[in-house]
TrEMBL record, chains A, B:
Signal peptide: none
Gene3D superfamilies: Vaccinia Virus protein VP39
Protein name: Methyltransferase small domain-containing protein
Residues in Methyltransferase small domain copies: 56-159
Cited Pfam families: MTS
Molecular function GO labels: methyltransferase activity
Amino acid sequence: MLAWNTNCDLQETIPDMTEVQDPSSGDVTHDAFLGGRVYVYQPKKGRHRAGLDAVFLAAALPVETTGRIVDLGSGVGTAGFCAAARLPDISVTLVEIDEAVLSLAQKALQDPENTHFADRIDLLHADITAKGSLRHANGLLPTMADHAIMNPPYYEADRFRASPKSGRAGAHMLDERGLEPWVKTAADIVREGGSLTVIFRADGLHELLSVLQGRFGAIDVIPLRPRPDAPATRIVLRAIRASKAPLKLLPGFVLHESEGSDFTSQSKNIMRGGQGLGLTPR
Amino acid sequence: MLAWNTNCDLQETIPDMTEVQDPSSGDVTHDAFLGGRVYVYQPKKGRHRAGLDAVFLAAALPVETTGRIVDLGSGVGTAGFCAAARLPDISVTLVEIDEAVLSLAQKALQDPENTHFADRIDLLHADITAKGSLRHANGLLPTMADHAIMNPPYYEADRFRASPKSGRAGAHMLDERGLEPWVKTAADIVREGGSLTVIFRADGLHELLSVLQGRFGAIDVIPLRPRPDAPATRIVLRAIRASKAPLKLLPGFVLHESEGSDFTSQSKNIMRGGQGLGLTPR
């Protein structure tokens, strides 16, 4: 049960990318989310480990959400699984470039604990950042999604250097094109009036707003703060395809109480109770 | 004492611009700020009336601030006066295009209540949005400012239509160039390492970040919310000239208690006690 060990304080720690292991070698953990309503398999080392970020991303979808959700860069499926577990009327397509990671999502779908949503999940092996013709050939089709969610790599290639040993730094590192190809693909696959929800580093707010420009509007920005008085370390941002409605900067969420390591009751309700962030459709 | 009647809830009300009066006609109010440490003269109608926005803008300057502060688009001087009253080691240049309004600032500097800061204020009649050579000829000189503050017009010309009767819609209406000429001028007059502090509509966050791009960094975003659970209606944003430091999204301030119309003690301390927003230099 290591699920909450990673990113527990939403700290900006640079992940260790020097030891990449083949998850088929068996060094895999089995982790519970949403108080046991969701289980995922994660490689112990060498790849991105899902945590709070994936849960908060899934919690941003309003309870009223229906239709097809595409999780762009799904990893082992944590966000997509949590979304499907919360929302009985959605189906979810996990899109991931790393086949070994996608095979762990496939394995988790056989778990008896995941039966209540497993038949509403499908998997797609594709490169989100590929050019349009290649993406379309790979099944990432225009307007295929009612809504997209994404937890893109947090670190820019020019700010942090990935270990040369790491063949799979992709889960942590954006290449030199940054978020542009991610949001371009999202704009292609989401139908008009559908939404894109992203969780990202708070200090990347301007980059994110800049690539959304002209593609998405009606932006809701939700700051996530580790403590009541601390700056946000993450933002959840939800935007509507082709909308011209104004941006809203919402109060956001505080993860921990002022003193000690206790989670706030609000964050416990989200992480363990499967509650949503309270966003409404617009 | 009408000072708090305007924008008290930071509501998005479209100001009445149909009746523009000449302030020399005498229909002017004398309003106290910071618990009586600052007095300004304001036209009763037809021009922008200063309120909370100007006070919060001035409060964003850290207590350690020294040097020359330039208030771009100062109106009758409320923000510049409040800054000078709070900070004994600064001098302030008010820059305003509207001569009638500037004459009210001049009049207020004769007030005995304002003696404690009046000799550290000077006035400059200039068009902030003019092209460089004209600005420079008018006295808006490169690197003249250690810090700039601005409360630019909130409404875009293409979103709201000013009354054709109004000759002075400038205080409320940005022209079709938006914030670009304002921030360009700020970038010209602020020395490297100096700051620009802006108060603006929260839903203009992306526009503001977009024009700051490449000119200012180390951006601190401070949301101002009318109630604890409400979206921000204003943002105060402070940025450092030519810095590459990352953006911070701060917790911000709540103006009113959850119930009723009482101000929070934190906002009272700022509005009546002259306390700062707690920003530190960076």
